[in-house]
Structure prediction request, 232 residues.
Amino acid sequence: EDKVVQSPLSLVVHEGDTVTLNCSYEVTNFRSLLWYKQEKKAPTFLFMLTSSGIEKKSGRLSSILDKKELSSILNITATQTGDSAIYLCAVERFGSRSGGSNYKLTFGKGTLLTVNP
Amino acid sequence: KAGVTQTPRYLIKTRGQQVTLSCSPISGHRSVSWYQQTPGQGLQFLFEYFSETQRNKGNFPGRFSGRQFSNSRSEMNVSTLELGDSALYLCASNERSSGAQETQYFGPGTRLLVL
Prediction:
């Protein structure tokens, strides 16, 4: 069964700190790893990492995929109170079945990040 | 571009009833995924539809079903509701390239309470 484990479960930091969130996975036929941010509403897509795109950056957020270690990190620099949220990691695998192919997404439980002023 | 819309936003039902939730994806997106989110289990994949065909299904009982129409709108149905079905049901509109996930946009969700 596919597994996605995120650590830490929760984290409290002060504004301006840099944080690193971890995601490790056990998935057959890995296709991609996705990061999401969820505040008090639906998740917001952040990044998708694949074998051909193992590093992504957007402003203060960046993410790296380590296919050898089967893990990924999400870095947030110069944190702000608006970064407070649950950060979710999901892994997509490619599966095949007769009549067509399909993709399946498995989510981790998330890391609750609290940024205090 | 309009975002993903889900209706209704809130719903209260009693055990044994059935419920139908609706999702309209972003215009041009042909793939829709459904998820259940609860405090205990987190976000769990229900199923995905692409061009009116179910592409994949998560580990949920047969009481959970869905369909997609030719305009890409999707519905999910839960029959014989149980207390444990109380959750936030999220729909996502998927932008795929050559079948693989590129980006994903979530709707606001339908919060279902089963009494």
